[in-house]
């Protein structure tokens, strides 16, 4: 059960990644609004259990390098449990408006901060704060560090652990693989260094591109869901605030349809001139989540 009595959402049996452009916030002048827009993307990724957010360069403008670093930093900060943020990120001017970020409230962001509230076998994110002859002491978000009987774990590096023993105020943990945690455990943000073409060529079993020039999702839903359930890794890609994926592909001298398995329009007959990237992410992931849940494996088994 979750911290509020709700069942924890299971990890997807298929790795879901989303691709977003480095120009996501290029047209937003103030850092506060940039931070909020990036936060909406991180929140969407968590809601729909995406395990990876890929940032691709959709142009050669030098500003995109700066914007990509900002997007990556804020998304990683947002995904980090609150009790580890100061230790891992310190004080940075780029994070001065972090207070506007929506909370994720995912399983790895526990609100329980007391040893008495820990449960045996529970997973936590932590950071090694010191070592001695007994092992490494790990901050897992409670009053006292937990003991990890492995002295060579590097400090100031985030790790995943499992609570193995609780005796009064003495807590012991063991290292755990993030990929073995059975419920949704947040997303990762690889270093931005790919163009759109390189992202689409990075080995995903199924690639779904979104575009107002794509086919209506309703027309391809059955085939798409069938391919979704056959895939082990899925990438859903979104265009920029000013250019769609077809335009970005044309500027990189390749045909989008040659690289994406599906190019779909998830917002047909849109009532506005342009749909913002973060708006398209919510609309598209909600529809895909619904379709896979409706036609695919029941939610309780994970989709």
Q: Topology, please?
A:
Blueprint: E1 15-21, H1 31-47, E2 52-57, H2 62-79, H3 82-89, E3 123-132, E4 135-139, E5 146-148, E6 158-167, E7 170-175, E8 194-195, H4 196-200, E9 206-216, H5 217-230, E10 233-237, H6 245-251, E11 262-265, H7 277-295
Helix pairs in contact: 1-2, 1-7, 5-7
Write up what this structure looks like.
- The strands form 2 sheets. Strands 8-2-1-10-9-11 form a 6-stranded parallel sheet. Strands 5-4-3-6-7 form a 5-stranded antiparallel sheet.
- It has 303 residues and is of the alpha/beta class.
- The protein is globular, with a radius of gyration of 21 Å.
- Strand 3 (123-132) and strand 4 (135-139) form a beta hairpin.
- The longest helix is centred in the last third of the chain and has 19 residues, at 277-295.
- The chain has 7 helices and 11 strands.
- The protein has 2 domains: 15-105 and 186-295, 3-Layer(aba) Sandwich (Alpha/beta knot), CATH 3.40.1280.10; 115-180, Beta Barrel (OB fold (Dihydrolipoamide Acetyltransferase, E2P)), CATH 2.40.50.
- Please give the CATH class of the largest domain: Alpha Beta
Major sheet description: 6 strands, parallel
Helices and strands: which structural class? alpha/beta
H and E string: EHEHHEEEEEEHEHEHEH
Low-confidence stretches: 298-302
Total DSSP helices = 7
By CATH, the superfamily of the largest domain comes out as SPOUT methyltransferase, trefoil knot domain
The mean pLDDT is 92
Overall body shape: globular
Distance between the termini: 19 Å
Helical proportion? 25-40%
Number of self-contained structural domains: 2
Query: Strand content of the residues, in percent?
Result: 15-25%
Radius of gyration: 21 Å
Strand segment tally: 11
């Amino acid at each position: 059960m979750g911290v509020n009595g709700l069942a924890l959402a299971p990890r997807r049996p298929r790795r879901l990644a989303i691709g977003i452009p480095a120009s996501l916030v290029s047209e937003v002048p103030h850092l506060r609004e940039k931070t909020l827009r990036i936060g909406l993307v991180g929140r969407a990724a968590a809601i729909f259990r995406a395990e990876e957010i890929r940032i691709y360069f959709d142009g050669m403008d030098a500003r995109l390098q700066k914007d990509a670093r900002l997007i990556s930093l804020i998304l990683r900060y947002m995904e980090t449990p609150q009790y580890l943020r100061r230790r891992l990120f310190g004080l940075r001017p780029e994070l001065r408006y972090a207070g506007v970020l929506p909370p994720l409230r995912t399983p790895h962001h526990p609100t329980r901060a007391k040893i008495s509230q820990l449960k045996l076998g529970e997973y936590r994110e932590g950071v090694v704060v010191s070592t001695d002859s007994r092992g490494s002491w790990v901050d897992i978000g409670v009053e006292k560090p937990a003991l990890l009987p492995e002295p060579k774990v590097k400090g100031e590096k985030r790790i995943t652990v499992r609570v193995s023993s609780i005796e009064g105020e003495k807590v012991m943990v063991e290292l755990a693989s993030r990929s073995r945690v059975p419920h949704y455990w947040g997303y990762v943000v690889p270093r931005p260094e790919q163009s759109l073409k390189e992202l689409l060529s990075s080995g995903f079993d199924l690639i779904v591109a979104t575009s107002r020039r794509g086919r209506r999702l309703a027309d391809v839903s059955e085939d798409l869901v069938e391919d979704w359930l056959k895939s082990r890794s899925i990438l859903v890609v979104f265009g920029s605030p000013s250019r769609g994926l077809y335009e970005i592909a044309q500027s990189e001298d390749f045909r989008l349809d040659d690289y994406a398995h599906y190019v779909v329009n998830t917002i047909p007959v849109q009532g506005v001139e342009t749909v913002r990237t973060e708006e398209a992410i919510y609309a598209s992931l909600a529809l895909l989540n619904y379709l896979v849940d409706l036609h695919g494996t029941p939610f309780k088994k994970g989709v």
